[in-house]
Amino acid sequence: AALLTLTRKRGAATYAQTLQNIPETQVTTLENGLRVASEESNQPTCTVGLWIDAGSRYEDTKTNGAGFFVEHLAFKGTKKRPGSAFEKEVESLGAHLNGYTSREQTAFYIKALSKDMPKVVELLSDLVQNCALEDSQIEKERGVILQELKEMDGNLADVTLDYLHATAYQGTALANTVEGTTENIRQLTRADLASYIDTHFKAPRMVLAAAGGISHRELVDAAKQHFSGVPFTYKEDAVPILARCRFTGSEIRARDDALPVAHIALAVEGPGWADPDNVVLNVANAIIGRYDRTFGGGKNQSSRLAALAVEHNLCHSFEPFNASYSDTGLFGFHFVSDPLSIDDMMFCAQREWMRLCTSATESEVTRAKNYLRNAMVAQLDGTTRVCENIGSHLLHYGRRIPLEEWDARISAVDARMVRDVCSKYIYDKCPAIAAVGPIEQLLDYNRIRSAMYWVRL
Predict the structure, then answer these.
(1) What's the first-to-final CA gap in the chain, in angstroms?
(2) At the N or C end, where does the chain have fewer CB atoms within 10 A?
(3) How does pLDDT run across 307-320, given as a tens digit for each residue?
């Protein structure tokens, strides 16, 4: 009874208190340029990860897929821990090891008990500095990756978005997929993979991030001990020069009438990571909302497009996106529909875009801002999400932007800003389109382009 009384009397922190009570992110730069960043808390566990400014955008047509290949091999042993010894050592800690590669960054992270943080830092340093690249493992992983590529072809949503990048950024590195082509995976050699590591795994392009029950001073001491051997490059040579990835209004259509549903993606060029317009565009996407047939609510959903989709059976699902890169981005939406509903769904979605440009209201902007605040606070859920937030922010913005600052940026958005910024990026712009499946009903590109503005009398 006493315990229940204590539980009832325990006060919940308000939204403002939550933002103010977030621990400070401490950042230290080592002599070789490696940035060490952490957020300390009273968690019994911690997540420590290495975020690297390298991805498929840094590859050419012949080496596309090298970063994804290296990510696979990183977990298959090092020169100090050959074979499965690396995996067994991680398992002996009861830890969880994971990683990913995207178009502009690569990450490796380990979640473990807080007391094992120094050992985790050592494992991460061994992983990136001493990757074995054994010929037998390369051939084994080559087969694994080729099988993964076959399975990825069955995920039509991802295939459609890859096609969207291919047409929007044709002729540039952003047009390439993260995983590479089947031909490249078959031909990449040990020398290609070693060259990728030697070129991109440089200290100034790395962030060692940590969150949980750890001490920043102890993290820095461990980093100095284990990462001092990571090559240093002068500031002007730290990041390879990226060619401007010019956006092109064009389309890719992959018609296959044997498929049951069509996947359609449409996007315009959006801003890069650091552009303040991103906050306004995220509010606009929150106004559009997202929908799936499994959702409840029916026609009573707050999203006007979702209510139309339910009432007229326009699609199986739709979702807006705002994919940002260093100097450009894709702002758009993706939907899945039956073959005979494509035209109606495209018409309603584009009309919603035009409405954002011309008549977005304060009430729906307020709702969208509250949705974004909820999503923002959800970043505090668990050490892994916090750690990824720290690592990604330092790569994208050069610092971790506090949630209080994000909240202030969101609060400053009003309906007029939404109309102005959406007009800047959407109104009368040439979109990029990717379509896969039974897409006979998808209108001609010029017809879709003509719906990117309204003729007002």
Answers:
(1) 71
(2) C
(3) 999 999 999 999 99
